[in-house]
Amino acid sequence: MAKALFEIGIPFKPQRSLVTWFIVDFLLFALVILSFSYLPAALFSDIDPLIHLLVIGSLLVLTGVFVLWVRLYYESMWYELHEDEMRWRRGVWFRRTGIVPYNRITNLDIVQGPVMRALSISTLSIQTAGYSGQAVPEIRIEAIEHAEELRELIRTLVRKAGASGDGTGSGSSAVAGKENQAAELQMLDELRRIRTLLEERR
Known about the structure:
Elements: H1 17-36, H2 38-44, H3 49-76, E1 78-81, E2 85-90, E3 96-101, E4 105-111, H4 114-119, E5 122-128, E6 139-144, H5 147-164, H6 172-201
Antiparallel strand pairs: 1-2, 2-3, 4-5, 5-6
Helix pairs in contact: 1-3
């Protein structure tokens, strides 16, 4: 029997290719910046060789620091699925942890750029009710190799949480239904009072 890709209660990490993805994106970004700033000046004007060394040295130092940061960032990351919520942690200098109840999830989107496609990884962006009006998702599960399977598993857990009515927020639809019914009865009572007053004034 094949082992499940993602299991409830067992933490999982992104693929190690996340490190490669971040580094390639960083180098492409640096190349674009250099192409529009430093390279035209280097090709069409006389620049002191010391400046060339300074620019190249700075780029190498920044690349080295970034590579170190990405490795530490990868090691700090994990995600964990539970029956009623999802937990995550990440961060190098500032550690961030979070809990996302399934009953708050509104959208599950898979994102895959050109570099990610070449590495066979995707990012699963999770939008919640509190973040629906914002462009940034509440959480991104980055560098996942089987993003479709993970999305389907989370969708199943979201549906289960919505139907359970166990006090974890999943019974909110039933509570909302009772509140709506009470409001409708109150409106009906008010209409009856208005009709009675109108009949008495005739």
